[in-house]
Structure prediction request, 351 residues.
Amino acid sequence: MKTLSILLITLCLTTSAHALNVRDIAIYNDTNETQWPEGGAWLPLVTATQVLVNALGYSLEYIDADDVNNNDLGEYYRMIIFPGGWAGGYNEYINQTGYQNIRDFISEGGTYLGMCAGSFFISDKVLWRENTDADSLQNVYDYPLDIWPGISDGAIIDFQPWDSFAETGCSSYPGARMVDITLDQTLMPEANPSVSVLYYGGPIYRPPNGKWTNEKVIARYDMPGFSGHEEPAMMLFPYGSGRVFLSAVHPELSLNESSCLLYYDITARTLLAQIIARIMAEPEAVETQIEMGRTLRFETVLGLKYEIESSADAGDTWQSYGDPIEADSFKHIAKIPPADAALEFRITLIQ
Prediction:
């Protein structure tokens, strides 16, 4: 616990505004209470995520609302992580331009990882009931980011009410309780079939109009006898050219229900490491088919060489189009003159 406290103090001292740098991953961090008194991120979860990302060897930096509101995030990052905490705090400071910057980042090829509050944040609607009374008012929020058109419905009050610690006896962490989830082995064969993770007010994901479309449910709650049993707890779906992974639970940090201390569980954190590795993975060769138009956007890997090719016969034959490209960011934008607008284009990795 002393180690965790030191990490939290260190992080508090390193959250000031700064110029953005090209990094693999950005973690949203508005825990500086002087600058963001109503901020949404919870510091222990920010720290737990940062420590894991560092251990995995990815480069990272923190971003806050000023960074989101004023920058093209795709110029700097491959993935952004919105950690757990309070989604209302994210909406407090991110403005309409910031929302659009997040949408553009994902739709142009970026990856978004939302943990608990980070998944509430991008949902069309949020249903929230926090106390132990099942007949209490359920608040309905129409959140503005609208990346996922479904409903995030929490907390699961018959399993763990947000305002209660009676289930664990841990008065420092009301609303928190460990829960098992089952992983879909066809979608993540590298993962353990069942993992115990931290539940801390997370939602059940409910599809728009009651029908799943392009979402893949990666994990489900394993809580027999409770309303959340076998309901979705993790999912992955495409958004434009990018992808979104949502987790209603916290594999990054666990609660010892005997000592009531937070700790890092190796099995749970291995699952999160596997998730990050999967959604950050680049194909061995990049070949992207793009709709015809004057502006083409291709996903690239920093430092590798590519060649744009064109086809005038619907892809039967391809020929080089312009000079080879050495990628200096995570995307390449090509301007195509009107005379060539009818051609089809792709980008291939030069071996």
